[in-house]
Design a protein that fits this description.
Family (chain A): Belongs to the EMC3 family.
Number of strands of chain A: 2
CATH topology of one domain in chain B: Serine Threonine Protein Phosphatase 5, Tetratricopeptide repeat
Radius of gyration of chain B: 22 Å
Radius of gyration of chain A: 28 Å
Membrane topology (chain A): Multi-pass membrane protein
Subcellular location (chain A): Membrane
Shape of chain B: globular
Oligomer: heterodimer
Helix content of chain B: over 70%
Protein name (chain A): ER membrane protein complex subunit 3
Largest interface: A-B, 32 and 30 residues
Largest sheet of chain A: 2 strands, antiparallel
Distance between the termini of chain B: 56 Å
Strand order of the largest sheet of chain A: 1-2
CATH architecture of one domain in chain B: Alpha Horseshoe
Function (chain A): The EMC seems to be required for efficient folding of proteins in the endoplasmic reticulum (ER).
Number of strands of chain B: 0
Distance between the termini of chain A: 69 Å
Strand content of chain A: under 5%
Chain lengths: 268, 299
């Protein structure tokens, strides 16, 4: 820590500020836009199922998920039990599988399966699209701007922010309010999401978070299975989910609800 | 693009008057669309909407018998999306079916579909067209079995489940129809029209079954109608169904009184804003009749 209560001053050329902050910001925005269009260009939509059996294998799982999510709003106790028993026994016997003979065997190596290979390539392309520009820009900043202190925040901060704001500047005594060029890059990297949203629309490919979220939500895509994943395992876990379900029906007492709902309002 | 809005509005209603009016403007819309295609840069932002309009236009033209414009529509869609595109082949098949003059032409359509399906067994639009064609050839059993095959592979298609329910219902198999509608509701749990339709099917099932089952079915039917009202507060069919269901039970309680009041209001308001509800005249007339019947029986 420097002297308490004394304003730290660093003598620096004000031109540094303009010649570092603006180039980094503009380059970051431009790469984001470029990445968006490159992703759009290289992205090939997930392949739809090519046979009826394949489609059944994929959608059979979604049917179980639908039953689990929506049964309360639709089904009476008996029809729920009936459907549950049907789905559970079908999942357990592997009736929905594309080729029931392969059940229990280790999943095929995704490298040898052409469809799996394609999906892997798609994922890799997406990752590359993130990695390559980041590496390039990072090395560009390291080569040209490393070690510059570029701006001073107008408010004080605690010492914890030092690693966030002063990466690349190894000065223990420097006040936390000073921001280094490398840190400015990191702040841009994570802070420009809303700018991209403004320029490219909300579902843009420049914000990598959206991509990660999409891969986590199984019902969103056409294919709920990741390449190399064994459908049978997912079926078995769905069986467990279904079996522990407790059913209630919102149709019970719906008459009273309707009456109560409308009773208070004279002009419906 | 202001001129586009009324077209879309009209297209969304599924009634013949609107369809006819839209079809009359077909040449104009098609010419404008043709210009757009030759200068793709001009309106590229509105493209999906425009092709949606063309698709609706195709339906309207076929309904009103303007086959020439309908053919133009399919050609424009094929020019944009390619002749082999699944949806385009489906629409093309729809056109062929609609313009078929006799049964043998329809049979030829069926063979054509089988040929397409042998190349790509999961061409959904064609699979669905095939079911519809079998139905219009009055072979409901075949239609049902091929629809079951389709649903075996694509169990998450609510539209197909509803169609199967309708087919079963037309064959008098109410409990199967009810099952199908429940499956459809599992996919779209908040569709109040399907809830009401399920209520209607349960009601008609109750009328034809014996007293013990009938009471349970009527109760289920009331639940369904109530749920559809809960989801959509001025759904005419829901209230209509409620009044209808209470008729055989002959118990006049709070719910029936409420349903009657509400139906009265809806009928009044829709009669006064007549022009907005042109398409649903038949429902409105039926509702008026049931209300008149109730008034007479009270007297």
């Amino acid at each position: 820590m420097a002297l308490q209560g004394v304003e730290q001053t660093i003598l620096r050329d004000p031109a540094l500020f303009y010649w570092i902050v603006f180039p980094i910001t503009i380059v970051m925005i431009l790469t984001g836009i470029l990445r968006h269009y490159a992703t759009v260009l290289m992205n090939n939509p997930p392949k739809p199922a090519s046979t009826l059996a394949e489609s059944r294998e994929r959608l059979g799982l979604i049917r179980g998920v639908n039953l689990r999510n929506n049964c309360h709003a639709v089904l009476s106790k008996e029809s729920f039990e009936m459907r549950k028993n049907y789905l559970v026994s079908a999942y357990q016997s592997g009736a929905f599988l594309k080729d029931p003979g392969n059940r229990g065997q280790p999943p095929a190596n995704p490298m040898t399966d052409p469809a799996g290979m394609e999906a892997m390539m798609g994922m890799m392309k997406g990752n590359m699209m993130m990695m390559i520009p980041q590496t390039l820009i990072m090395s560009w900043i390291n080569a040209f701007f490393s070690g510059f202190v570029i701006l001073k925040l107008p408010f004080p901060l605690t010492i914890r922010f030092k690693s966030m704001l002063q990466s690349g500047v190894m000065t223990r005594d420097l006040d936390v309010r000073w921001v280094s060029s490398l840190s400015w890059y990191f702040l841009n990297l994570f802070g420009l999401q809303s700018v991209f949203g403004f320029i490219l629309g909300s579902d843009n490919a420049a914000s990598h978070m959206a991509q990660q979220m999409a891969s986590m939500n199984p019902a969103a895509g056409v294919n709920p299975f990741q390449p190399g994943q064994d459908p049978d395992k997912l079926y078995q876990s769905e069986v467990e989910n279904l079996e522990v379900m407790e059913h209630f029906c919102i149709l019970d007492g719906v008459e009273e609800r309707v009456l109560r709902h409308y009773a208070g309002r004279k002009s419906y | 693009m202001q001129t586009n809005t009324p077209e879309l509005e009209v297209a969304s209603g599924s009634n013949l008057v609107a369809a006819f009016r839209l079809a009359q403007r077909a040449p104009l819309i098609l010419r404008r669309q043709g210009e757009t295609i030759s200068h793709p840069s001009v309106h590229s932002g509105k493209e999906p909407e425009n092709y949606g309009v063309i698709e609706q236009l195709l339906f309207s033209c076929l309904q009103s018998g303007d086959d020439k414009s309908a053919l133009l529509c399919t050609e424009q869609l094929a020019a944009r999306f390619g002749v082999t595109d699944e949806k385009v082949t489906g629409l093309r098949g729809l056109y062929e079916e609609a313009t078929a003059e006799n049964r043998s032409t329809l049979e030829k359509c069926l063979q054509q579909y089988d040929l397409v399906l042998s190349e790509n067994p999961i061409n959904l639009p064609i699979l669905k067209r095939r079911v519809a064609l079998l139905r219009s050839l009055s072979r409901p059993a075949d239609a049902i079995s091929s629809l079951i095959n389709l649903l075996d592979a694509v169990p998450t298609d609510a539209e197909a489940w509803c169609e199967l329910a309708d087919l079963y219902h037309s064959q008098g198999m109410s409990s199967q129809a009810a099952f199908c509608l429940e499956e459809a509701l599992l996919i779209v749990p908040n569709a109040w029209n399907i809830h009401a339709f399920l209520g209607e099917i349960l009601y008609s099932d109750a009328l034809s079954s014996d007293a013990g089952d009938s009471f349970q079915l009527l109760e289920d039917s009331i639940h369904r109608f109530c749920r559809s009202i809960e989801l959509c507060s001025d759904y005419l069919r829901g209230f209509y169904g409620l009044i209808l269901v209470w008729h055989p039970i002959k118990v006049l309680d709070e719910l029936t009184i409420f349903a009657r009041e509400r139906l009265n209001e809806i009928v009044k308001s829709r009669t006064s804003t007549h022009h907005l509800w042109k398409g649903n005249q038949s429902e409105l007339i039926a509702a008026k009749e049931v209300l008149d019947g109730l008034d007479n029986s009270d007297l």
